[in-house]
Amino acid sequence: MDFSEKARDLVCEQIFEWDLASKNYEGLKKVKVKTFYFNDYHIDIQFNPERIISSAAKVDFQSIEARPCFLCQKNLPSQQRGLSFNDEYVLLVNPFPIFPEHLTIPHIVHTYQKIKSNFESMLCIAVHLKDFVVFYNGAKCGASAPDHLHFQAGVKGFLPIEKDFYNEKCCTELRQLNNVIISHWPNYQRGIITLSSNDKQCLTDCFYQIYDQLLANQTDDTEPMLNILTTFEDEKWIVHIFPRVLHRPSQYFQTGENQIILSPASVDMGGVLITPREEDFIKISAADVKDILKQVCMKSQDVEALINRL
């Protein structure tokens, strides 16, 4: 049995033996979904009330310091079990799922959420979790535990971007750098840089070039604002990088009828927007979706310019 199969078995076992997981995975079958169709792609909206914990998480320094870290081994629920990965990470079943099979993969050491020096680990995890999309939320881009390094993973076939990557009307190859093909998405509402390669070192070098360029424009932060989705298929990695310019859109901070509680992270960037309140699910429109993505994502023309500077 390979590691991906072990992970999927763990999900089944935890649903059976852990009350919280059992309740929320059963509830996942009842979530409401609606779809907005654009020219060559679609975006799903999911009403998932259990995700309010993540969407409304307080991630300011004072709030983080005031609560125990829920990803540290000593603070895990007694019923939660995990799988060790390379003696560095532990694979856990996420008890507040978005995907039918949803994992959280924290580092065994309590250390700050940052992709610098950990991108290679993400690539390695993707190889071993062949049935999953592995993703990273930056500390200021959707991570509800910005004080503890972690990745997440969701079973493949759930995110629209997985298929859209193979649609030339959505994703366009722009250039090749060493052994890395670099693509962008000119008409996708989100500025995205996609890297594909079977060469781990070249892929890593290319990623860090992009990282450094993004960081140069955000000198007041410890890392550039970004989300990342990674898969390994057909003996190569596919890495989608979403440069961000804003954590949460203006609608999040409105009051009354104008408020929409939606805090975009990697899953939203991949084409499934999570609304934890039913009233937001009902009223959100295609125009709202376009506006929210426009606010929080880098413009596609700026992404193209960045790629051409590499």
CATH class: Alpha Beta
Helix content: 25-40%
Could you tell me the strand content as a percent range? Answer: 15-25%
Give a short account of the largest sheet.
Answer: 10 strands, antiparallel
Q: Helix/strand/pairing class, anyone?
A: alpha+beta
Which architecture would the CATH scheme give at its second level? 2-Layer Sandwich
Features of the shown structure:
11 helices; 310 residues; HIT family, subunit A; alpha+beta; three-stranded mixed β-sheet
Describe the protein's architecture and organization.
This protein has 310 residues and is α+β, with helices and mostly antiparallel strands. It has a single domain (3-248, 291-309), classed as 2-Layer Sandwich (HIT family, subunit A). It is built from eleven helices and 13 strands. It has helices spanning 3-17, 19-28, 52-55, 61-66, 119-128, 160-164, 200-216, 266-269, 278-283, 286-296, 300-309, and strands at residues 32-37, 42-47, 82-85, 89-93, 102-106, 132-137, 150-155, 172-177, 180-184, 193-197, 226-233, 236-243, 272-275. The strands form two sheets. A ten-stranded antiparallel sheet has the order 3-4-5-7-6-11-12-10-9-8. It is globular and about 50 Å long.
Topology:
Elements: H1 3-17, H2 19-28, E1 32-37, E2 42-47, H3 52-55, H4 61-66, E3 82-85, E4 89-93, E5 102-106, H5 119-128, E6 132-137, E7 150-155, H6 160-164, E8 172-177, E9 180-184, E10 193-197, H7 200-216, E11 226-233, E12 236-243, H8 266-269, E13 272-275, H9 278-283, H10 286-296, H11 300-309
